[in-house]
Amino acid sequence: MNVSVENFRATRKACVLVALLSVFSTASAESMVMASTTSTEQSGLFSHLLPAFTKASGIEVKVVAQGTGQALDTGRRGDADVLFVHNQIAEEKFVAEGYGVKRYPVMYNDFVLIGPEADPAGVRGKDIVAALKKLAAANGSFVSRGDKSGTHAAELRYWKDADSDSNKGTGYKECGCGMGPALNMAASSGAYVLADRGTWLNFKNRADLKVLVEGDTRLFNQYGVMVINPAKHPHVKAAEAQQFVDWVVSPAGQAEIAAYKIGGEQLFFPNADQ
């Protein structure tokens, strides 16, 4: 009986020790929160990029993937330490308002107009504005993210350039969703949709969707990073966030971005030195 009691006590001590070590390990591990556009996560980039940063720095990054507009709002509330987004005008305003310390360019890719291979609205070509005019005139089915994301903001600019911002045709629908779900809706309904190329290349449920419009200089898609200003929100982990920014714009971070490919095709192009 004494042996059993001693074994029980020894086991209990061991369990307590393991629990304490676990708590200590969790508490001592450096981490930070990044609010980011959905395209950086749904394209698979972060699964490639962030482990390399953690290995170099010891800092774990917890990602909150949202549309760029929502990510900026998260930053304004101080609910993130760093932002990784793609709406330069909104980013510069964010910094001017004092919410971000400084905006750094990181990388770029482009937007593409996706649609059914048969292209019933006849939009195929290089000119995104001409394509949207045709789409509106044909009342073609179009899925808009409608979520204040960087992609949604770009889409609205193109509609405005096409003089169709107030009349996009009866086939225009907003889903209020991320890029992946918007592509799924387009695939299931044979609709057109504007997407960033990175998420499209990583998208598996393509049905008969194809890239129909690409190569227009207006489709350029720039990404930037910003540390949340600790003067606005003293609790943010500004030092860790700055470590990430310094790394991602460094030759090491830029090389990791360039190395991310799907089927041999590069998804993002580093340009921190622009």
Automatic annotation (TrEMBL):
UniProt KW keywords: Signal
SUPFAM superfamilies noted in UniProt: Periplasmic binding protein-like II (SSF53850)
Pfam families according to UniProt: PBP_like_2 (PF12849)
Signal peptide: 1-29
Source organism, top-level taxon: Bacteria
Keyword tRNA processing among record annotations: no
Tagged with keyword Zinc: no
Domain PBP: 26-251
Protein name: Tungsten ABC transporter substrate-binding protein
